[in-house]
């Protein structure tokens, strides 16, 4: 029953009529002598989503045919041009994101080399991409790409008033002590869900690291509270996160110790640059292939000591531990 030929316009017309009558995908597949997965994939990939007029959304056979033809035309661009394809692969291996590659090609000029980042993503996740293991070079690696229209906004979980654009200037300028940034360091999936949390005080660059057995948010927040709660209130005023699933229970911080939470914009982890740069330092000792469960708490503490006892140029070659201790001592004197 399986057929590997592309769906024709007439077949898409039949799919549209039967789908409108709410006939099951299995029955549509039997009517067309196609595999059920072909019909499922067709409805998923070529369903028209109208953001401005939602009532106009639906599977329309002419529109679907045009979308499929256009997708194949774009996708073939890399297959037709081996030189362009090789250049894209080289940039991916150098750590460039598809958007950076596309933007650089556009800057270089020339219609022949113009390529959208969506086309690069489609190539990476196509049959050729996994064969070359291109997905592991992406900034965010996934086994398969999530559909564009399945990416749900998290505005209710991370409200606008907590957005980083509303964070006070006194925090942005690092002129006040007690404001932290946090992130999760993720390792190879085959080694399990265990990860390591990185927490950095913005002014002193003092770093805390701790294990997590999984990426559930509530246990991570409990760990944060356990590590930060012993500090004076003024030493743990706020925490800045990205919008990862590990931080959706951020309200636990407010209830547990009165700490304010701030969140980066979507897909903008660079806005918490202090912890991102710290992660790069930690990766020297804990590369992605590390089996986190084999790393002892003593090894984690030793790594923290190494980071906190290393002089930093941004601190005028004082160590983070010296700066952190000095600020804690000043808070203690204020309380006396």
Relevant terms:
single chain, 336 residues, alpha/beta, Nucleotidyltransferase, domain 5, 3 domains, 14 helices, 5 strands, IS30-like_HTH, RNaseH-like_sf
CATH architecture of the largest domain: 2-Layer Sandwich
Structural class category: alpha/beta
- Quote the beta fraction: 5-15%
- The H/E string reads HHHHHHHHHEEEHEHEHHH
State the fourth-level CATH superfamily of the largest domain.
Answer: Ribonuclease H-like superfamily/Ribonuclease H
CATH overall fold name of the largest domain: Nucleotidyltransferase, domain 5
- Tell me the name of the CATH class of the largest domain: Alpha Beta
Give the radius of gyration.
25 Å
As a percent range, the share of helical residues equals 40-55%
If you average the pLDDT, what whole number results?
Answer: 85
Summed up, the helix count is 14
User: Low-confidence spans: pLDDT under 50, at least 5 residues?
Assistant: none
- Placed side by side, the strands forming the largest sheet appear as 3-2-1-4-5
Question: How many beta-strand elements?
Answer: 5
Count of discrete structural domains = 3
Description:
- By secondary structure, the chain is an alpha/beta fold.
- It folds into 3 domains: about 1-80, no CATH class; about 95-145, no CATH class; about 160-335, Nucleotidyltransferase, domain 5 (2-Layer Sandwich).
- The chain has 14 helices and 5 strands.
- It has helices at about 10-20, 25-30, 35-45, 60-80, 80-95, 100-110, 115-125, 130, 170, 215-230, 250-255, 275-285, 295-310, 320-335, and strands spanning about 180-185, 195-200, 205-210, 240, 260-265.
- Helix 4 packs across helix 7 (about 115-125).
- The termini are far apart.
């Amino acid at each position: 029953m399986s057929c590997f030929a592309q769906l024709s316009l007439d077949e898409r017309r039949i799919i549209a009529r039967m789908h409108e009558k709410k006939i099951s995908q299995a029955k549509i597949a039997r009517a067309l002598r196609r595999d059920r997965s072909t019909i499922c994939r067709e409805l998923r990939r070529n369903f028209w989503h109208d953001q401005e007029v939602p009532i106009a959304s639906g599977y329309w056979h002419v529109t679907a045919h045009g979308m499929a033809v256009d997708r194949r035309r774009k996708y073939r661009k890399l297959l037709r041009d081996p030189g362009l394809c090789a250049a894209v692969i080289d940039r991916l291996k150098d750590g460039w994101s598809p958007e950076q590659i596309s933007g650089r090609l556009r800057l270089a000029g020339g219609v022949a080399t113009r390529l959208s980042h969506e086309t690069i993503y489609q190539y990476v996740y196509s049959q050729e991409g996994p064969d070359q293991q291109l997905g592991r070079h992406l900034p965010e690696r996934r086994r398969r790409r999530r559909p564009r229209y399945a990416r749900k906004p998290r505005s209710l979980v991370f409200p606008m008033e907590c957005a980083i654009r509303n964070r006070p200037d006194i925090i942005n300028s690092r002129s006040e002590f007690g404001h932290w940034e946090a992130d999760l360091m993720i390792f190879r999936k085959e080694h399990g869900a265990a990860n390591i949390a990185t927490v950095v005080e913005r002014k002193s660059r003092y770093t805390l690291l701790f294990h997590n057995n999984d990426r559930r948010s509530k246990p991570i927040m409990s760990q944060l509270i356990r590590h930060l709660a012993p500090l004076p209130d003024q030493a743990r005023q706020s925490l800045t996160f990205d919008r990862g699933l590990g931080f959706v229970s951020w309200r636990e911080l407010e209830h547990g110790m009165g700490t304010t939470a701030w969140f980066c914009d979507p897909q903008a982890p660079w806005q918490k640059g202090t912890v991102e740069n710290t992660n790069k330092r930690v990766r020297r000792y804990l590369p992605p292939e590390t089996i986190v469960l084999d790393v002892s708490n003593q090894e984690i503490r030793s790594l923290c000591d190494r980071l906190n006892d290393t002089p930093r140029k941004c601190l005028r070659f004082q160590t983070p531990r010296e700066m952190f201790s000095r600020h804690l001592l000043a808070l203690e004197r204020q309380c006396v």
